[in-house]
Amino acid sequence: MKPMIRAGLAVFLLLGALSSAWAQASRFVGTWLVEIHHSKRPRAMIVTQQGETLRARFGSQESGTRIGLATAVLDDGGTLTLTTNSESVAVLKVVDDNTLQGTFTPRAGKQSNLTAIRSTPEALAALAAPGAANAVAPNAAPRSFLPKAEIEALALGKKWSFRRTDSGDHVRWDLREGGALFGNNNSTNQKDAGTWTVNDQGHLCLKWRGGSTDRCVALMREGDQLKLVDAVVPGPGADLTVE
Q1: 229 φ, ψ to 5°?
Q2: Do the bridges between strand 112-119 and strand 53-60 make them parallel or antiparallel, or are there none, so unpaired?
């Protein structure tokens, strides 16, 4: 084969491979609701395309469209790998136009299977809308949340301890007077610091300086037991101890 013909064939094959990769990239673009198997904490993913580059956000649904940035790498085989700011890794492949499947590996955690279902920006925004915390599943008993004044009394200068419902990690928050916040994941020996406030809805809102996820939580009471729940997304509560 003549050199010019070989060069032309190589360019043709390269362009074909790039076109295929771009076609695969477009199938990941959109808003996705993500279920990580064996985890009760719902996630969301938003993927956009700018030229030949994919950009992504991935995180807990309670953060709405403000979920954290993630780097996105699409290989020639059509596998998308997302790496979040907290060093969690999601690996996804297209099943059909509305479904992705793959794995999720948290930092210092075990790998789990995941499934992503195509959604809409409106559906994701609704999850973060005020009042969504009071939504309950059909036939579920309404949940009664503690008021702002009681939350403030339980938070000011206190230490909160609980086990995360998704990973089972034992977490401790030190809520200092003046709004200083110190957190420690006793299971992984990871620490972070930030600030805490109680908003008008009675939600304790945490803003971290490190890699932890900013979030708001609410408290409910079941008998003598306090339950810590996400302030936006309905879900199971974690037993809370206040010292």
Answers
A1: -135, 155
A2: unpaired
